[in-house]
Request: fold
Amino acid sequence: MTATAARAYRPALRPGVLLSPPLLRGPRTVHLVRHPVTGDAFEVGIKEHFLMSRLDGTRNLDDLAPAYAEEFGRRLGEGHWNRLLGLLGTRGLLVGAPDPAPRPSAPERPNSLWRGTRPMVADADATTARLHRTLRPLLHPAVQLPLLAAVFLLLGVLTWRAGALLDGTAEVVRQPFALLGIALFLWASITLHELAHGIAAQHYGGHVTEIGLRWRFPAALLYCRVDNYLFLPGRRAKLIIAGAGAYLNMLLLLPFGVWWALLPVAAPESPPLSGLLVLGTIQALSNLVPLPPLDGYRMLGHALGADHLAPETRTYLALRRRGAEGAEALAGYSARARRIYTAYALGSTALVLLAAAATLMFVLHLLG
Reply:
C-alpha cells in the first residue's frame, strides 16, 4: 500500500472483535484484543485502543488525527498509523484481511490417576444457556435483593452465636457419619458453585467454553471456564460473575441456618447443623479472600482494573529491592500503580498471617 493510499484508507475492524476495558499491568495500562474466529488474544496500549475503537470504515488518517491530538497532545504520525494497520491486517482483525494461521497448540499433559482434567459436557455454552433460561426469573432483582439480605442476616446470626456454633462443631468432630454427610454436602456445593459462575456469565453475555472434572488425587472437583468475561463492559458484571459461586454457597446454607436457629440448644440435630454451617460458611467466605487463585482475588483485580495483580506485585517489589538498579524501571510506574502494588503486598501478607492464626485457633478449639 502506497503512502497516499494508506492515508486515504478507511479501515474497519471485522465484526466480533472484542476490546477489553483498560487494565493496569505493571507500569502500563493496556487493553486486550480478541480475534472472533481464532480466539487469539493480545494486548495493545491506550493509544492503539483509542484508534481501534474508532475504526468503523468511515474514518481515515486525516479524520482521526484531530481527535488523537486532542486526546494525547501530539500529532498522529503516518508511521504510527501504518504500523497499526500492518499489525491489525497481519492478525486478521480488519474487514477483508485473511485469518491468521492457527498457532500450534501446546501439547496437553496426559491424564493420570494423580491429576488430570476431563470435559463432561459436549456443548458447555448451550448447557449453561438452558440452565440460565430456566433460572432467569429467579435472577430478577425483586428475588435476589431479599435473598442477599437474608444471607447478610444469616452471617449476622452466625457471628452473634459463634460460641454455640463452635461448641457444636467440636462435638460433631466425634461423629464420623455426620462428618461424612457434611463433606458430601460441601462437595456438592462446590459443583453448584462452578455452575453458578457459568449461569452468571450467561446472564451478562459471557461465553462458557468448557465444563469438566478436574482431579488432584484424592480430590475431584467440577470446573467451568468462561473465556470472554474480561471483555464485558463495566466492572459490575465481572464482579458478579466472579462472586456468584460464593454467593450460591451461602444461599444453600439458608434453610439449614433457619433450622438450626429454631432448634432447642440440646437438640441432637444441633451439632451436625452447627458443623455444616461453620464449615459451609468457611468454604464460602474463604473463596472471597483476595489471594490467588480464589474468586476474591479475581474480584479485587476487577474492582481495581488491574490484571495479574499478584505477579505484577512481585515484580514491583523485586524492582524496589534492587535500589538504584531498579530506579529506572520504577520511574515508569504511575502513582496509582505504586499505591496498588504496595497496598496489595502489605494486605496479602497480613491476610496470610491472619488466616494462619485463625486456622490454628479453630483447630485448637476443635481439639480442646
In short: The chain has 14 helices and seven strands. The longest strand covers residues 208-216. The CA atoms of residues 138 and 144 lie 7 Å apart. The mean pLDDT is 90.
